[in-house]
Amino acid sequence: MLRIGCHLSSSKGFYSMAETAVQIGANTFQFFTRNPRGGAAKEWKEQDIAAMLELFAQKDIAYPLAHAPYTLNACAKDESIREFAFNTMREDLDKLESIPGAMYNFHPGSHVQQGAETGIELIADQLNRILKPEQSTIVLLETMAGKGSEVGRTFEELRTIINKTLCSDKVGVCLDTCHVWDGGYDIVNRLDEVLEEFDAVIGLDKLRAIHLNDSMNGPGSHKDRHAKIGQGNIGLEVFQNIVNHPKLRHLPFYLETPNELDGYQQEIALLRSLCGS
Ligand code: FE
Ligand code: FE
Ligand code: ZN
Asked: Per DSSP, which regions of the chain are E strands?
């Protein structure tokens, strides 16, 4: 069965997210660990998590994906911003150990005129100070559109970060369809070649999650503006190919399209109908 869900608000807690997922036909979901643009995190209640895990078991929900706040920049020029990134990721990962099977997705960062090489060093350095061999949570680097000085637009940059990370078995990649398209990978005309390139550079075994988003812009636009599925420049047929692809269909898929819950429910039903599950 297709493992698909969408980004959900975490404001009402964990059990509420799992309930919402069930209501809209999802069997996975993504959430922010804290305010995406701010800092302080709410307390995670043990009972709330236990109730969520019970519903997971009943309804076959799996792979909740925690998304780090957008303000987390492990390769910022400003040391205080890097320190915020370090503290945030360490705290988030500590807490996530209470949710078995959860993954943690973050944007590698923006190097802000320091150059990609320095950016990559700083990101790997942060991961090396945080990741522990005994942790259960897999940390995902998200493929980026290449807006501004974003690190992680190319598969090579992501590979280099992984190579420099000591606990590299705890690191995977989340492929965002809008981002790779905006970043210059032509998944519309050359999906198989792009996946072959991913395999050659990073290794498909590192691919652990897919963000399903259509794009308001053209290939290589470096814009990062998501569109509803089938209403952007990527188009419905490509999403049909993606969710049915033998190299991808086992992965969890997360929608981050501009939708309210009813829109997500429709997109989930649409994608399920395209692969008969
Ligand atoms: Fe993201
Ligand atoms: Fe994304
Ligand atoms: Zn995006």
From this structure: 4-7, 28-32, 65-67, 103-106, 109-110, 138-142, 150-151, 171-176, 207-212, 214-215, 226-227, 253-255
HEC string for 66-79? EECCCCCCCCCCCH
Q: Please tell me the number of Cα atoms within 13 Å of 164 on its side-chain side.
A: 18
Asked if 255 and 27 count as a contact pair (C-beta separation under 8 A), the reply is no
Which of 30, 7, 9, 25 has its CA nearest to residue 99?
A: 30
Contacting residues for 134 by C-beta, under 8 A, at least 6 apart: none
The model carries a pTM of: 0.97
Tens-digit pLDDT profile for residues 224-239: 999 999 999 999 999 9
Structure tokens of 224? 């990062």
**Cα gap 147→122, rounded to integer Å:** 19
Distance 223 CA to ligand 1 centre (A): 13
Token code pair at residue 88: 């945030």
Letter string b/e over residues 257-272, b meaning 16 or more CB atoms within 10 A of that residue's CB: bebeeebbbebbeebb
Considering every ligand atom, which ligand is closest to the CA of 181? 3
Strand 226-227 vs strand 214-215: parallel, antiparallel, or unpaired? antiparallel
Element containing residue 161 per DSSP (H, E): helix 155-164
**pLDDT tens figures, 69-103:** 999 999 999 999 999 999 999 999 999 999 999 99
- The continuous run of DSSP H or E covering 5 comes out as strand 4-7
CA of 226 to the centre of ligand 3 (A): 6
Give 106 Cα–ligand 1 centroid separation in angstroms.
6
